[in-house]
Write a structure and sequence with these properties.
It is a single chain. This protein is α/β, with parallel strands linked by helices. Helices cover 23% and strands 30% of the residues. It is globular and about 40 Å long. The protein starts with 11 loop residues before the first helix and ends with a strand.
């Protein structure tokens, strides 16, 4: 099964969430982790977020820039395991769809810590993955909505969509 990024469309669970939630003037700085071909970043930008989108693949970032030449999204080559220090607690919303699932088990705690580290005060982390999510609470985030979703309506491929917030 191909990912939404491979299909060049935004993640359907992100699209569903965006139907209800959009950026507000004082809560709009967003980071998209593992942005792939850029569709999720562009969807968030269209919803009013000021988006930084990163991927550790320079080729993926070149693809984004080629596909969206007039985009206001700041596409950056960066690895969430070693985020730029300027990103520290700097985002109102951090979105990750399945990046945790692709990280080696030995590095997942570091990735979880890194994701939590870029969520700003009163910020939110929206994660879609198949992994255990309780580890985010160890890094200062509070679990909000956690729901099990399935791809293509089948229970065979399950993912978790979860919101975490950094207390003020």
């Amino acid at each position: 099964m191909s990912s939404p990024s491979a299909a060049q469309r935004p993640n359907p669970w992100l699209v569903e969430w965006l139907r209800t939630f959009t950026a507000t003037p004082n809560r709009k700085r967003c980071l998209v982790v593992g942005c792939g071909a850029g569709d999720d970043a562009e969807a968030l930008a269209s919803a009013g977020y000021t988006v930084t989108a990163c991927d550790r693949s320079a080729e993926a970032i070149q693809t984004c820039r080629r596909r969206f030449p007039r985009s206001g999204v700041d596409y950056a080559v960066a690895d969430i395991l070693d985020p730029p220090s300027s990103w520290g607690e700097g985002f109102d919303l951090v979105f990750d769809a399945s990046t945790l699932d692709t990280i080696a088990p030995a590095s997942r705690a570091a990735a979880t810590r890194a994701l939590a580290s870029v969520v700003g005060p009163a910020g939110r982390l929206l994660v879609i993955c198949a992994e255990e999510l309780a580890a985010f609470e160890a890094f200062g985030l509070r679990a909000g909505v956690i729901e099990v979703v399935s791809e293509d309506g089948t229970p065979l491929v399950r993912r978790v969509r979860a919101f975490f917030e950094r207390p003020v």
